[in-house]
Amino acid sequence: MSSEEWQIVWFTAWVSALSTVVILPFGLALAWALARRDWPGKSIVETFVSLPLVMPPVATGLILLQMFGRHGPIGGFLHDKLDLDIIFTWRAVLLALGVMSFPLLVRSARVAFEEVNPRLEQIARTLGASQWRVFFTITVPLAARGIIAGMILAFARALGEFGATIMIAGNIPGKTSTLSLAIFSEVQLGQDDRAFRLLGVSVALAFAAVWGSEWLLRRNRESK
Amino acid sequence: MSLLLKNISLPLASFTLEADVEIRNRVTAIFGPSGAGKTSLLDLVAGLRRAPSAFIQLNDRVLTDTARGFCVPTHHRGIGYVPQDLALFPHLSVRQNLLYGWKSGGAIDPLFAFDRVTDILEIQPLIARGVRELSGGEKQRVALARALLASPRLLLLDEPLASLDAPLKAKIIPYLARIRDEFQIPMLCVTHDRVEALTLADEIVVLVNGKVLQTGAVLDVFNRPANADVAKLVGMETLHPGTVTSVTEGLVAVRVANQTLTAVAPAQATREVFVCIRGEDVTLQRDSESPSSVRNRLAARVVALRPEGALVRVELDAGFRLVAAITRPACEDLNLQPGLAVTACIKAPAIHLIARE
Asked: Residue A17 burial by CB count (10 A; 0-12/13-18/19+): exposed, middle or buried?
């Protein structure tokens, strides 16, 4: 593989992992709020978060483009006040991957939180633990399997993201080109051998992610 | 200790839990049928549930006062809680479970030192194990120890014996008695089982459908139920402390007041017992001499007659207070009147003995 190809693989894996890490705290907080609390507007937020799952990714990309473009409400603010551009940079890739994989993490974590017996959390409170301590020592460990599964799903979704990414990040070689975008453009250019090499790497990455999660879950189960 | 529950009002599925009681004794049983709101009451005390109206004060510390919008959060209340399902943390070892509250409790009261608590509850050999390797009785003791290690000022126990079979119950009761005596800690114990209430508690709060029907010393409530509902619940007209004086061939002689009764020996023999006799098991006769198979024949005097439907409850003084439930015609045939001397007969198997710890 050429250094250019390695760059694509490295960039894709790295930005997918980063997006999973970045959405983790928000995803867990939202999943917990959905599982354990009742609040006004809950069902609206719930629906809103799941939208990227059911909408065409390109449509989601277009919405992001409108919001984060230099003339968009968020993009304009970031450009004027912080001199920060999003669209057609690696940050746009991160944004697209994060938004597209967020619902998978939230759904998985929410189910996992709901399955934790609330009595365990309550009794932990009577033992003098603050809500934060209960969350990190009781809720999260008991929901760990679902959370890990959700992270793997989110990471896998990020690895394969295409539609939203191409809308807001383009396919700039060496800058925003990811595995999916590169495979597509190599095939377009008739460079099948390069496309197949990247395909092989995709399979290897996906295999490693799923196998790694199975291993984590197995270890988690055995330690209980 | 004093636990004040005032103006409690908590709407539940089919009724509103209401309470206005002051609990002063060391061990108090919240007694009532299942679904009476007993667990909800414990949850309120622990701060796990909010009521629209409640004032809760433990000793001189106000825990909840809805009138002022004041509520101490659960983790600052210092109230230990052992729920019915025990809620041991399945992902932690026994040791980690035990230390969970000990770390955050912080107050290193020597009374609740780790070695002392684990010694008293005899769980030293279990500490290295996983929670899933424990038997029912062991889990119970670990849950009790975990609550104690957080140095609580009050211990809430929800049906501590309900999930255990009879032999295990007999094993756990002494531990509960030990906790009561060794840690000098007040306990509020929810139960629907009158044997549990009798064995453990000094005071009893009878709760039915969210209403407190009666409060008082256990013996008072059992002997003098305030109304028919309580009477039905306690189901025992006569209840007295007694002392076993001898055991022969499966029968025991029990001293109650100045009388000695013969009863069938209970499964676990203890010296101090409660003697329980149902009114329906007491028959009355005018003469004292006619021979019969009945072992216990007590000279008694009629104190009062209380008609109740087809039955008459006859209150007797047999050296202790004894109640007989007989039919109206029987009462007329015997021409019973207050002051009349009669013989009360009770078959030995009808005398129920409950261990008194």
From this structure: middle
Q: A30 near A49, Cβ under 8 Å?
A: yes
Cβ neighbours of residue B193 under 8 Å, at least 6 residues apart? B161, B162
Neighbours of B333 (CB within 10 A): 11
What CATH code would you report for B238-355? 2.40.50.100
- Class of the CATH-defined domain B3-234: alpha beta
Which residues of B fall within a CB distance of 8 Å from A128? 75-76, 78, 101, 104-106, 150
Contact yes or no for A130 and B75 at CB 8 A:
yes
Predicted ipTM of the assembly: 0.80
CB B123 within 8 A of CB B194: no
Query: How many Å apart are CA A108 and CA A33, to the nearest integer?
Result: 14
C-alpha A111/C-alpha A184 separation (Å) is: 35
d(CA B6, CA B22) in angstroms, rounded, equals 8
Report pLDDT digits (tens) over A122-139: 999 999 999 999 999 999
Positions of CATH 3.40.50.300 in chain B: 3-234
Q: Which of A123, A130, A137 sits opposite B87 (nearest CB)?
A: A123
Instruction: Write the class of the CATH domain A3-222.
Output: mainly alpha
For B303-327, how does the pLDDT look when each residue is reduced to its tens digit (9 = 90+)? 999 887 788 889 999 888 888 989 9
